[in-house]
Amino acid sequence: MIFAANFKMNHTRATTKAYLDVLAQKLVSKCSEDRVFIFPPATALDRYEGDFTIGVQNAYMAESGAYTGEIGLEQLEEFGIKTILIGHSERRDVLGEDQALVAEKFAYFKAQGFEIVYCIGEALEVREKGDEAVMAHLLSQFEGIDLSYEKLIIAYEPIWAIGTGRSATTEEISSTHASLKEHFDRPLLYGGSVKPENIKEITAIDGVDGVLVGSASLDVERFSEMIFA
Ligand code: PEP
After folding, report:
1. 155 and which of 79, 84, 133, 189 could share a cystine (Cβ 3.0–4.6 Å)?
2. DSSP 30
3. Which residues are recorded as binding substrate (predicted)?
């Protein structure tokens, strides 16, 4: 199982360090094949010791240069960051990243050998149109994406389930994951209101290789409760 924590624009440098100190201690006693990823805000990137991988929530597809407000490869290399989240719905919908930009970022960071957690997901109005519309939408988010990339992890995150407290049902997750898996042979995470209360049910679903967690990952006790569940 893969457990990924997306802090979004939460936590400071100080609280991220405190969180990771606690997490590192907890993971010492966990001998397993599980993988843990933490995506803190860019201001808290650093070299941390522990049985987890630190990734960046976003970066620009250049080494450095005139891209005000962005960070690029040079800034990531300083901290040994080799993992990136690409295509999160908040970057697509709130920050206006279209599929062309998302695919450009993907190609750049693939060329740099990054491990990429690539997010896809549909809005509620698409879900309400039925399975066919959902799949058509999700497949459109694979445009320009090399699904055979060996360092690719895909995260299915229905937008209507993100930060709403309402997770997709077992049936919705199971059938969407099964349909998606016909198109690639890479790990597939589920994300959307995953929490300690539903982690066992979600990770038991066939075709779920792990979870991407937002809100419930912000508290190290709750996040580790999920890892140890
Ligand atoms: C996310 O934004 O990646 C996410 C899954 O958020 P939440 O767990 O809060 O729904």
Report:
1. 189
2. -
3. 6-8, 163, 193
- Residues 187-208 pLDDT 10s: 999 999 999 999 999 999 999 9
> Helix or strand or coil: residue 152?
strand
Is 88 catalytic? The answer is yes
* DSSP state, residue 167: P
Q: How many CB atoms lie within 10 A of CB 60?
A: 18
ipTM of predicted assembly, 2 dp: 0.97
Q: How far, CA to CA in Å, does 29 sit from each of 13, 24, 36, 224?
A: 25, 9, 14, 12
DSSP for residue 161:
G
228 is in an annotated binding site: no
Class of domain 2-228: alpha beta
**What are 77-119's pLDDT values in tens digits?**
999 999 999 999 999 999 999 999 999 999 999 999 999 999 9
Nearest in space to 118 (alpha carbons), one of 94, 84, 143, 77: 84
Q: Where are the domains of the chain?
A: 2-228
Instruction: Report d(CA 159, CA 140) in Å as an integer.
Output: 15
Query: For the packed helices 220-228 and 13-28, what is the interaxial angle rounded to 10 degrees?
Result: 30
213 Cα–ligand 1 center, Å: 5
* Tokens, residue 152: 């690719």
Q: Is 163 annotated as a binding residue?
A: yes
- Report the alpha-carbon distance of residue 76 to residue 136 in Å, rounded: 34
pTM of the model: 0.97
